């Protein structure tokens, strides 16, 4: 017993050094170890032990008192502790939650829980903390002209995907209700084609012969169902033929296609976001079919990226994980289908990671991690001062440090590029959960880089209160510069017939050329 307690104490001392954005150097004590100990721990020590056994320990200040009172009971139930106040409420399994998410045996006593709960409620602010002082955005985005296409028919504005074809400049639009539209920007975004699909197209990859792979989620709402598919589409005359590549995917949101095993064939890295269950897996091409390699058995995989991170000539992977165990992970390619996992960044569970890029933003020859966080569709739907846009740079030890942060409520989408072609990279971010009372209105911000690492933010001159869900860049008109298209997702049109004309997106037309 004494040896076990010393090991537990060592873990708690170690956790004292954990920050909000820090990689753990050694694992914290398990829930079982904590439940078997008889140490007299303070509320803070209990939080550092219990909370950090599953994810980065959150500081009390990330939520206000009222919100903690909503969130903490669910955390308690996950540790198997039910109190009198829970009588009459539905059990997790009654709501379709898979077994194993909520423990059937308690890992914490009521006495310890009360101390842990008191730590958060006593140290949390009364109200959500305000944003730190920041450079106020200027009105009007330099070099861009806003266009609002006028569609003269009624259709739900439920855009799930926007992509600009790199050769033709045509816009491919995924719609929640089983459709993929091909629109011609040269003809006022007139519809060139309409392709029936499974529910909610979210990713498309074109092939040299103009066939394409399409990823559809199957269900957009939180679910543990496996209805997502990746399909291969080929055109025969005026019709499209669909063949399944992968099926029974758990609410997939992103696929990266590259050659990780060096055989000259396409492999697939699939982010199955899921809900309570999910996974990130790599499907390597074989002589016949594909072999699945499970790289992460957690929900919340949001985006992956093929990159030769270590410069050894083969492709590695960067992956953004969201949900509770948030962070950016490197999977180093060791060959023969083997990958070594290395966390690069870890975040507290309410951080709301949404999207990322890996680019040389500052022009120093080293690529940085650019991240937006602002997902607010959870149990803590309040304005969060830590939502925003961040740049992380590698230090001499190879570890990432935050070098720049701009607060932006609900930041959810990101594009990076030298849009004004001045030799410096600019950023564009959208928000699905903005502060609708904030002025100037900040559901879209363009960050023009003035000097290395110095950005001036701009917002639209015309205030548009659409719900922006998607953002993409590309050359719509073939003039050699990149335009921006921002997609609308009007939640109220999910459950009632729309009365207004279709408004699936707006365009920021680059007027550089």
TrEMBL record:
GO molecular-function term, one example from the UniProt record: heme binding
Pfam families, per database record: FG-GAP_3
Keywords: Heme, Iron, Metal-binding, Signal
InterPro entries xref list: Cyt_c-like_dom, FG-GAP, Integrin_alpha_N
Top-level taxon of the source organism: Bacteria
Segments forming domain Cytochrome c: 38-124
The protein's name in its UniProt record: VCBS repeat protein
Organism this protein belongs to: Algoriphagus aquaeductus
């Amino acid at each position: 017993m004494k040896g076990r307690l010393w090991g537990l104490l060592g873990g708690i001392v170690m956790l004292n050094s954990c920050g909000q954005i820090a990689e753990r150097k050694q694992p914290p004590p398990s829930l079982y170890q904590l439940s078997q100990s008889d140490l007299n721990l303070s509320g803070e020590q209990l939080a550092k032990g219990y909370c950090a056994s599953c994810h980065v320990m959150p500081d009390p200040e990330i939520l206000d008192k009222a919100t903690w009172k909503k969130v903490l009971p669910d955390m308690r139930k996950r540790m198997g502790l039910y109190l009198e106040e829970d009588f009459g409420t539905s059990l997790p399994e009654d709501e379709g939650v898979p077994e194993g998410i909520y423990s059937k045996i308690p890992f914490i006593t009521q006495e310890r829980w009360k101390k842990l709960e008191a730590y958060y409620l006593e140290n949390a602010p009364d109200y959500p903390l305000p944003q730190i002082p920041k450079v106020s955005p200027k009105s009007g985005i330099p070099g861009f002209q806003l266009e609002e296409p006028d569609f003269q028919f009624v259709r739900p504005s439920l855009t799930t995907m926007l992509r600009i074809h790199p050769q033709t400049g045509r816009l491919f639009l995924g719609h929640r209700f089983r459709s993929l539209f091909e629109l011609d920007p040269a003809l006022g975004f007139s519809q060139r084609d309409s392709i029936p699909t499974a529910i909610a197209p979210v990713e498309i990859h074109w092939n040299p012969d103009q066939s394409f792979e399409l990823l559809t989620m199957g269900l957009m709402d939180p679910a543990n169902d496996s209805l997502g598919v990746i399909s291969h589409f080929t055109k025969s005359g005026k019709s499209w033929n669909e063949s399944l590549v992968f099926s029974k995917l758990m609410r997939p949101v992103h696929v990266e296609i590259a050659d990780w095993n060096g055989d000259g064939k396409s492999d697939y890295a699939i982010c199955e976001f899921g809900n309570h269950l999910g996974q990130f897996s790599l499907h390597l091409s074989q002589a016949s079919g594909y072999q699945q390699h499970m790289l992460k058995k957690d929900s919340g995989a949001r985006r992956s990226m093929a990159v030769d991170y270590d410069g050894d000539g083969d492709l590695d992977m960067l992956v953004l994980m969201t949900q509770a165990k948030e962070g950016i992970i490197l999977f180093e390619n060791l060959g023969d289908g083997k990958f070594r996992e290395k966390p690069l960044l870890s975040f507290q569970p309410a951080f709301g990671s949404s999207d990322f890029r890996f680019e040389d933003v500052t022009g120093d020859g080293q690529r940085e991690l650019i991240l937006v966080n602002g997902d607010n569709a959870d149990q803590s739907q309040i304005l969060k001062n830590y939502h925003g846009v961040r740049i992380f740079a590698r230090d001499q030890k190879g570890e990432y440090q935050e070098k720049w942060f701009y607060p932006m409520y609900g930041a959810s989408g990101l594009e990076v590029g030298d849009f004004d072609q001045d030799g410096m990279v600019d950023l564009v971010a959208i928000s699905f959960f903005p502060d609708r009372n904030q002025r100037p209105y900040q559901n879209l911000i363009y960050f023009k880089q003035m000097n290395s690492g110095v950005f001036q933010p701009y917002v639209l001159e015309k205030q548009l209160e659409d719900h922006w869900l998607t953002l993409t860049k590309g050359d719509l008109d073939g003039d050699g510069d990149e335009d921006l298209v921002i997609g609308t997702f009007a939640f109220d049109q999910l459950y009632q017939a729309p009365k207004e004309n279709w408004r699936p997106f707006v365009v920021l037309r680059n007027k550089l050329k």
